[in-house]
């Protein structure tokens, strides 16, 4: 027993030294029983896989369904998440363009769709975009899967907002990549986007500069306003973008004025596309609920018309289209000073992007407001409840007209559009509109209801110099716009009364437009060549030099940028050309009277040398008293006799001894002047 006890104690000592540290033994509690955790991800993925298989089977049956049979989105093979997003966004009944295009786009076919403005084209490509990524079970690790390209930033922002509403139940990541936003913020985030809504310029910048960005896995390309995206303005940018995308992608092209050019479709990568033109056989190219009219109005009366129109429609939402950014800036600033009785806003391409988005959101929220905008707001923007669209300046072509008036009468709502045409634009523009079966009614304006505000404008410009500068820029920008337009039958810059137009903007003096003066010279100079036929024209009111009230700055007026506006000649030093208006007599013989040659150009250097030879002291101010004697200011001029003698002598070089003598005498006068100032100060 004793031996056994000793062995047991030794064993305990050995085990205690090996298995536990020295010190008191800790109490060990019982572990709680844990149930195996349920993984909802596996069950959800199984349900999604089952749903995807069901959707694929239903898509094969789309070919047997007529578009007229689709009365709700539930009859289309759409996922539960997409249907819930549509229901929450109050999208229940599909439109015509949605019914006709979704049958093909959901099946993976390329689609080229055209429909009138406000017919629901945005939703027609967002739905197949979400369904394509969902059926392929796209994840953030797969990178970029769908690409939406729009011509304007505002349209991209609007599409992004619609995508957030409809696709809020999905797990995809989406990004808005447009110019004017922080590039560094986008730099590392674009690589994780599954859906990218962008403008061509910023997308190409990421493609060429950002090593994190890749577009190798793009499954779907969508071009909204495809005709403008593929136009000459974006041609080079779009060609570079399309070359970087995979060729086996699905392409969807949407626009109100769709292209059918085979070359454009090949560039976009369309493979046997289906054309869905909802209103191809419609009598008009604009919505039926839109009432269209036009008014004959001279250029110098447009400001008065706009003021009177806005004052009579203060309880409406009005969208006014202008030709240039400078006009939008001036009219926005001027109407804010005039206080028309409703909110006034301006939207143009030169504004900062965040400011543009803020103005767009504010105008959408307002019930009564007026927005002055360029064509940057003409395409795709879905601004709710626009009552009037006023085209203060004639659109470039019929396509621009259709997109402008499409901002009102959207989605079966009523709307009105009015077009201001000058007498020279009326006949040619109506002919162009007739080619698209667009009929506009002529309206005669009651002169008694027109409120002239020219005097108010002049008073405001006299108070605010910055507004006067904006008026000059708006004046020049509009005339340059007319000169650059291709359709010369509609746009005639020589038909504008420059003096009256300048007065309507509040300008007392008509700004000088050099390129227009040259244009007028060429126009009248090509009519005849001999001196005999030119004499009646030179003596009449219509001469080579147009009847303009201009600001002439003499020899130093050649720095104006308008000098080189329509000229392709080489630039030289600033030159003052003194053209003689006499033309050579082509019938004169060699023995006859000599031709009057044109004077040579006189440079600035020659003018300065001519002034120096006259020994005139330039840039000096002379003050005279009441008796007519010159008053010298001893604080600013030298009054000593030695200084006067030196000024009367015509000597070259520097005489140091004479200058030292002058400084001593001037120092004597300066001390006297300083002493007098101290006496006055101590009184």
Name the features.
Rossmann fold; 41% helix; 18 strands; 683 residues; seven-stranded parallel sheet; 24 helices; 3 domains; single chain; disordered N terminus; alpha/beta
Rg calculated over all Cα atoms: 39 Å
Shape: elongated
The name CATH uses for the topology of the largest domain is Rossmann fold
Largest beta sheet: strand ordering: 3-4-2-5-6-1-7
Instruction: Give the total of beta strands.
Output: 18
What's this, in brief?
Belongs to the DEAD box helicase family. With 683 residues, the protein is α/β, with parallel strands linked by helices.
Structural features, described:
The structure is a single chain. By secondary structure, the protein is of the alpha/beta class. It has three domains: 232 residues, 3-Layer(aba) Sandwich (Rossmann fold); 166 residues, P-loop containing nucleotide triphosphate hydrolases (Rossmann fold, 3-Layer(aba) Sandwich), CATH 3.40.50.300; 87 residues, no CATH class. The protein contains 24 helices and 18 strands. The protein has a seven-stranded parallel β-sheet with strand order 3-4-2-5-6-1-7. A hairpin with a 5-residue loop joins strand 17 and strand 18. Helix 13 runs antiparallel to helix 18 and helix 17 packs across helix 18. The longest helix has 27 residues. The termini are far apart. The relative contact order is 0.07. The N terminus is likely disordered. It catalyses: ATP + H2O = ADP + phosphate + H(+). It holds the Pfam family Helicase_C. Belongs to the DEAD box helicase family.
């Amino acid at each position: 027993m004793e031996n056994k006890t000793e062995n047991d104690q030794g064993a305990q000592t050995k085990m205690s030294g090996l298995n536990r540290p020295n010190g008191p033994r800790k109490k060990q509690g019982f572990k709680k029983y844990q149930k195996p955790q349920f993984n909802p991800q596996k069950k959800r993925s199984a349900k999604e896989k089952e749903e995807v298989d069901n959707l694929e089977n239903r898509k094969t049956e789309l070919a047997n369904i007529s578009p007229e049979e689709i009365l709700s989105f539930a009859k289309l093979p759409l996922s539960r998440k997409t249907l819930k997003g549509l229901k929450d966004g109050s999208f229940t009944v599909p439109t015509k363009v949605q019914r006709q295009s979704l049958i093909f786009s959901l099946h993976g076919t390329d689609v080229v769709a055209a429909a009138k403005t406000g017919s629901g084209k945005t939703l027609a490509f967002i739905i197949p975009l979400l369904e394509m990524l969902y059926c392929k079970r796209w994840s953030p690790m797969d990178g970029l899967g769908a690409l939406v390209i729009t011509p304007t930033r505002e349209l991209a922002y609007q599409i992004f907002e619609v995508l957030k509403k409809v696709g809020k139940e999905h797990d995809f990541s989406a990004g808005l990549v447009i110019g004017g936003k922080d590039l560094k913020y986008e730099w590392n985030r674009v690589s994780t986007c599954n859906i990218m809504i962008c403008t061509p310029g910023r997308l190409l910048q990421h493609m060429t500069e950002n090593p994190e960005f890749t577009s190798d896995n793009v499954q779907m390309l969508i071009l909204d306003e495809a005709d403008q995206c593929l136009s000459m303005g974006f041609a080079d940018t779009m060609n570079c973008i399309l070359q970087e995308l995979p060729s086996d992608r699905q392409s969807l092209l949407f626009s109100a004025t769709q292209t059918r050019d085979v070359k454009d479709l090949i560039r976009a990568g369309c493979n046997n596309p289906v054309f869905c033109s909802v209103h191809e056989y419609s009598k008009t190219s604009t919505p039926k609920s839109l009432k269209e009219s036009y008014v004959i109005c001279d250029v110098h009366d447009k400001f008065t018309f706009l003021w009177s129109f806005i004052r009579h429609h203060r309880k409406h939402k009005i969208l006014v289209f202008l030709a240039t950014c400078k006009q939008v800036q001036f009219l926005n600033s001027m109407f804010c000073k005039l206080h028309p009785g409703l909110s006034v806003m301006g939207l143009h391409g030169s504004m900062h992007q965040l400011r543009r988005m803020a103005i767009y959101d504010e105008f959408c929220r307002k019930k009564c407001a007026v927005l002055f905008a360029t064509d940057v707001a003409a395409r795709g923007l879905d601004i709710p409840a626009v009552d009037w669209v006023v085209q203060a300046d004639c659109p470039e072509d019929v396509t621009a007209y259709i997109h402008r008036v499409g901002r009102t009468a959207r989605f079966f709502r009523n709307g009105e559009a009015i077009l201001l045409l000058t007498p020279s634009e009326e006949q040619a523009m109506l002919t162009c509109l007739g080619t698209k079966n667009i009929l506009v009614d002529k309206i005669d304006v009651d002169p008694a209801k027109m409120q002239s505000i020219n005097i108010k404008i002049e008073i405001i410009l006299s108070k605010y110099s910055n507004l006067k500068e904006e008026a000059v820029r708006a004046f020049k920008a509009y005339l340059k716009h007319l000169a650059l337009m291709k359709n010369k039958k509609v746009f005639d810059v020589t038909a504008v009364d420059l003096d009256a137009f300048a007065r309507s903007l509040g300008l007392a003096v008509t700004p000088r437009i050099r390129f227009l003066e040259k244009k007028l010279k060429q126009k009248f100079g090509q009519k005849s060549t001999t001196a005999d036929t030119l004499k009646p024209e030179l003596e009449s009111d219509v001469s080579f030099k147009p009847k303009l009230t201009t600001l002439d700055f003499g020899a130093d007026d050649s720095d104006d940028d308008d000098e080189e506006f329509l000229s392709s000649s080489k630039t030289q030093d600033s030159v003052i050309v003194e053209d003689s208006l006499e033309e050579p007599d082509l019938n004169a013989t060699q023995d006859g009277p000599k031709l009057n040659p044109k004077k040579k150009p006189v440079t600035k250097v020659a003018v300065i040398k001519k002034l120096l030879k006259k020994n005139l002291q330039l840039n000096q101010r002379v003050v005279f008293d009441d008796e007519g004697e010159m008053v010298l200011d001893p604080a600013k001029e030298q009054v000593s006799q030695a200084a006067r003698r030196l000024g009367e002598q015509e000597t070259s070089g520097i005489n140091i001894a004479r200058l030292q003598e002058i400084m001593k005498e001037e120092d004597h006068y300066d001390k006297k002047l300083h002493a007098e100032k101290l006496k006055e100060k101590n009184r």
